[in-house]
Sequence to fold (381 residues):
Amino acid sequence: MQATHANAERAVKRLALDCGFDIARITTADAFSRDEAAALKRIRDGHMDGLSWYTEERVRRANRPQSLLEGAKSVISLALSYNTGEPNAPDSQPRGKIARYAWGDDYHDVIKARLREFADGLPAIAGRAVSTRVFVDDGPMNDRAAAARAGVGWFGKNTNILTPSHGSWVFLAQVITDIALEPDAPLKKTCGDCVLCIDACPTGAIVAPYVVDNTRCISYLTIELRGAIPRELRPLVGDWVFGCDICQDVCPVNRKATGSLEAAFKQRHDFAAPALTPLLDLDAAGFSARFRRSPIKRAKRVGLQRNVCVALGNIGDPVAVPALANALHSDSDIVRLHAAWALGRIGGNDAETALRSALDEETDAEVIDEIRLALEEAEAS
Ligand code: B12
Fold:
């Protein structure tokens, strides 16, 4: 493939670093055939259940860059680290965990602005008008497939792309362009015999190397799932209230990862280890104000408060009983149901009293069932 001029690749990568990206590599706009077949199989095996937008039609487009931009010749694959440092020292009140990627500003907004700046710089390098289409997890593009083939990193067994410099703590973004650029080679690295991520996943969501069952992944359960978290999975979710980093935290490659100075991704409020009971008090306006321009708004207030109940139930500290008793009167049946579950786990006189009085008033059949189960559990403990 002919580059537009001798130093085009170098200039493109320089531009990406100047726009604030940490890694920039290039691949062709050819289809990601292995990844398309794997993703179709994943859907058919039921491992993508629950993500209704993740359709076979989408998979076909996501793995064929030429179907996303007419005349596409290259994909410029970019990565930006969000590894901005460790949480504040926790105090004694019950605190949960939020996945690192969501501690700061919403990456879609931050990266989209940089992608636009990057795309605006391409015509000067090509010496002509260029067609581009940019993606940051906001459209049909298989980000990891592009990153792997461009050599941004390699597929870990947890399916995350591991970069040699920044580990897997990176957001991925792609720029499809009609400029013909010399592609980079994929990396030769693999995870070898290491299976730490597979063993560490509490829900067993990594069902085989490179295969995540979405329906068991804590990230899915706490972010994407609307409705109740399956009862048998609730104890396994631990204290995660938005996303999960277990399969990344245990990864040896991440221990040596270079940090990020990116101000936009620094922890807001106490997001790395949020105090849990105050989150149960948030009304719609309070939720919007606290999580404005944060990825956490995706869970919506009901989803987050559901997760907070589960985490409090798993932490088991009776100090949370008054807040959970209050949540038994939430306007959301989902929150009431999970508050009941949590009170059953914590047990004790106050929890039982709150459950009994809620039973007298509750009208939703599923919540009534959950309160009954919770009372049985509380009485047994
Ligand atoms: C759907 C989705 C999810 C779903 C499903 C996860 C999943 N594994 O697919 C849920 C909600 C669970 C999720 C969770 C997370 N996500 Co997400 N998610 C996506 C999204 C939108 C699509 C991913 C996709 O297509 N999955 C489909 C399956 C089939 O693909 P796959 O799991 O990657 O599997 C590939 C391999 O199996 C490979 N393959 C097949 N055979 C073989 C054989 C060998 C030998 C090898 C090496 C590979 C290989 O082919 C498959 C297809 O490419 C992308 C953004 C995008 N547009 O691409 C972000 C994205 C993948 N997510 C991202 C992040 C950060 C996360 C979380 C870390 C967030 C968190 N902390 O909670 C977790 C990680 C969970 C995990 N271990 O995967 C980043 C990943 C960055 C990185 N370094 O890889 C992305 C790229 C967003 C972005 N633009 O930055 N996510």
Observations:
- The radius of gyration is 23 Å.
- Residues 107-126 form the longest helix (20 residues).
- The pocket of cobalamin is lined by residues 34-35, 38-39, 42, 51, 99, 101, 136-137, 141-145, 155, 158-161, 168, 170-172, 210-212, 214, 217, 219-220, 223-224, 243-245, 247 (CB under 6 Å).
- Strands lie at 23-28, 74-81, 97-98, 132-135, 154-155, 161-162, 170-177, 206-208, 211-212, 240-242.
